């Protein structure tokens, strides 16, 4: 089995300055500073197969961006080994960068004051892409991302959504086999997000492009990735299928009832007390939401009891959202 990314016992530590308190402490700091070692990434190991789309998730400060920077050769690891596309990212830098594409949601690789197409031409020269390869590949990218009308505009005149689509196009000029995306949809509206997601699916299917995605928008993960790697305080706490995570932690379901008649909340609560249901009630809208264990028998029993006593306008059954699951894991600890 061939891997695009192989990480073994990876560590990254930073030296942080710690100041002493008071005037006396300030004078001492002038002569002898205190430092402490802060581990940003703490002995992690994982691998990503070629053609796989993996979500790399965690809270702020968990070590996601630090990992990406080591995988792309920007930072040198304190310890451990990294192999990406069969190379050491920080030792074979020039050869390595031709095999990856990187999009940082809060940084730009496009030149601010020149037209987008001029940035594309410069990057084409940097990556030594032939005219034939550029025309064949980039026309598809430009059409799919719908950035044709933006090519003659300076980057500074683009909206955030327009710029991010152009950033993605710039990362793919040399059609890399591996794409790193760090918060690529941050601040974007729903339509732009949908376009970017659809495009990523297409390049994954057409070119077998490997994608490592870090994001706080878990809907991106749900739409694109079957597998997630979850980080907490620099350590991996989960590496596996998103579906398994949902099965293990999505232990509740919400059943929303809308009634055609006025319903007495106390009567409804008493009626379902043996089913271990928690009710959230909006009397004005006559909307009642029951939270119950994700057990088919209990859900069926609840619906049967309610339907047999009241006239129903609508029923909706919703699983626990991925966002809620992740929040519960960080609050309660992974078990």
From TrEMBL:
The residues covered by the ABC transporter domain are: 25-258
What is the source species? Falsibacillus albus
Q: What is the lineage of its organism?
A: Bacteria, Bacillati, Bacillota, Bacilli, Bacillales
Q: Which UniProt keywords apply?
A: ATP-binding, Nucleotide-binding, Transport
Q: Does the keyword ATP-binding apply?
A: yes
One Pfam family this chain carries? ABC_tran
Q: Name one GO molecular function term.
A: ATP binding
SMART domains associated with the record: AAA (SM00382)
Name-wise, this protein is ATP-binding cassette domain-containing protein
């Amino acid at each position: 089995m061939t891997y695009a990314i192989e990480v073994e016992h990876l560590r990254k530590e930073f030296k942080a300055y710690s100041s002493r308190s008071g005037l006396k402490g300030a004078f001492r700091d002038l002569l002898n500073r205190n430092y402490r070692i802060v581990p940003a990434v703490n002995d992690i190991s994982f691998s990503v197969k070629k053609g796989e789309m993996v979500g790399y998730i965690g809270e702020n400060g968990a070590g996601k961006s630090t990992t990406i920077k080591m995988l792309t050769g920007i930072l040198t690891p304190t310890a451990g080994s990294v192999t990406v596309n069969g190379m050491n990212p920080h030792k074979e830098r020039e050869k390595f960068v031709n095999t990856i594409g990187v999009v940082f949601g809060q940084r730009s690789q496009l030149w601010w004051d020149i037209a987008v197409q001029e940035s594309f031409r410069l990057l084409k020269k940097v990556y030594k892409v032939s005219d034939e390869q550029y025309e064949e590949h980039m026309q598809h990218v430009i059409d799919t991302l719908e950035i044709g009308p933006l090519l003659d505009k300076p980057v500074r005149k683009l909206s955030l959504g327009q710029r991010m689509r152009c950033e993605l196009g710039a990362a793919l000029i040399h059609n890399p086999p591996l794409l790193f995306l760090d918060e690529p949809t941050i601040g974007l509206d729903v339509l732009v997000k949908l376009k970017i997601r659809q495009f990523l699916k297409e390049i994954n299917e057409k070119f077998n492009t490997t994608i490592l995605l870090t994001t706080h928008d878990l809907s991106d993960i749900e739409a694109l990735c079957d597998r997630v790697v979850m980080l907490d305080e620099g350590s991996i706490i989960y590496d596996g299928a998103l579906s398994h995570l949902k099965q293990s932690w999505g232990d509740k379901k919400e059943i929303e009832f809308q009634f055609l008649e006025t319903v007495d909340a106390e009567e409804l609560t008493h009626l379902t007390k043996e089913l271990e249901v928690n009710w959230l009630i909006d009397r004005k809208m006559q909307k009642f939401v029951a939270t119950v264990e994700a057990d088919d028998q209990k859900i069926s029993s609840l619906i049967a009891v309610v339907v047999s006593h009241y006239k129903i306008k609508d029923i909706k059954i919703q699983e626990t959202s991925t966002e809620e699951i992740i929040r519960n894991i960080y609050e309660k600890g992974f078990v």
